[in-house]
Amino acid sequence: MDKQIIEEVRLNRFIAMCGICSRRKADSLIQQGLVRVNKKVIVALGHKVRLTDCVEVDGQTIYTETNQYLLLNKPKGYITTMSDEKNRSTVMELINNACQERLFPVGRLDKETTGLLLFTNDGILAKKLMHPKYKVKKTYNVFLNKNLSKPHFLKLIQGLHLDDGFIRADKLNYLNDSKRNLQIEIHVGKNRIVRRIFSFLGYEVQKLDRCMYSILTKKKLPLGKWRMLTSKELNFFKTL
Predict the structure, then answer these.
(1) Does residue 6 carry a pLDDT above 70?
(2) What are phi and psi of 28, to 5 degrees?
(3) Is residue 219 part of a domain?
(4) More exposed terminus of the chain, fewer Cβ within 10 Å: N or C?
(5) pLDDT mean across residues, the chain
(6) pLDDT the model gives residue 4
(7) Which residues neighbour 233 within 8 Å (Cβ) at sequence distance 6 or greater?
(8) Domain with 147 in it: what CATH number?
(9) Which amino acids are annotated catalytic?
(10) DSSP result, the chain
(11) pTM for this structure?
(12) Which domain holds residue 93?
C-alpha cells in the first residue's frame, strides 16, 4: 500500500511537486488540454501518474524537484502568503532567489510577528510539523502592555478554553522583573494562537518573536536573512 502511494500520484499534485504552479492552477492547465502524459493529452482531473511517467506542460517536459528546507528570520511588515492581491509585502520576497524549487511556508506568522519561519517543498514533512500529534514545540518571546498577574500565569499553565478549543502553555517563564516580558512554549499551531490566549485574559501583545522552532534557533541568523537546514537538523526532523 505504501509503495503504491509513493509511486502513483494525482496529476495536479505531480505538476505542483515539480514547482510549476499550485494544484488549483494545475487543474486549469489540465482542463485547457495543455498537459500530456506519455505523449497523450490528459483532461481528466483525477488522472494519476507514476513518478517515472513523462509529463509535459505546454510542450515542456517537467521533472520532480529536490526537497529543500529553508529557515527564515522573519522581520515585521511581511505577511505569510505565497502572493497578495493587495500588493502587500510577503515573506516570499525575502527568499526569492534562495533556490530553483518552489517553496511553501510551514504554518504562518502574522504581519507584526518576527522570528523563525520554515519553508519547504516537502509536503509530507510539512504536514507532520503542523500536526499536533507530533508536538513540535514553538517558543516565543512576548512583550505585553502590562504585567502578567500570578493568577493568569497559572491559568496559562493549567489551560483555558478558546472558541476553537482547549489550549495551554507547555512552558511559561518571566524574562525579567517587570513581568511584561515572557517566554512561552506551545506545540499547537492555530492561527494567531499566542496573541489570542493573552487577549482572552485581557492583555495586548505589543511585541511577539518566535525565537525557537523545535531544535532550530536564530543563532547566526540576522533578521531578514535565511539559511538552509543542516544535514543534522534534517536527520532530526526525519525521525518524526
Answers:
(1) no
(2) -65, -40
(3) no
(4) N
(5) 91
(6) 37
(7) 69, 215, 216
(8) 3.30.2350.10
(9) 110
(10) -HHHHHHEEEHHHHHHHTTSS-HHHHHHHHHTT-EEETTEE---TT-EEETTS-EEETTEE--PPPP-EEEEEEPTT-BSSS--TT---BGGGGGTTS-SS--EESS---TT-EEEEEEES-HHHHHHHHSGGG---EEEEEEESSPPPHHHHHHHHH-EEETTEEE--SEEEE-STTSSEEEEEE----TTHHHHHHHHTT--EEEEEEEEETTEE-TT--TT-EEEPPHHHHHHHHT-
(11) 0.77
(12) 69-131+226-238
Work out the average pLDDT over 17-40.
91
CATH at 56: 3.10.290.10
Parallel, antiparallel, or unpaired: how do β-strands 205-213 and 114-120 relate?
Answer: parallel
What is the C-alpha radius of gyration for the chain, rounded to an integer number of angstroms? 21
Question: Of 44, 61, 78, which one is at a domain's C-terminal end?
Answer: 61
Domain count, the chain: 3
97-135 residue pLDDT tens: 898 888 999 999 999 999 999 999 888 899 899 988 899
Q: What is the pLDDT of residue 178?
A: 83
Among 17, 42, 61, the domain boundary falls at 61
DSSP line for 128-179: HHHSGGG---EEEEEEESSPPPHHHHHHHHH-EEETTEEE--SEEEE-STTS
Residue closest to 109 by CA, chosen among 122, 91, 96, 95: 91
Q: What confidence score (pLDDT) does residue 53 get?
A: 87
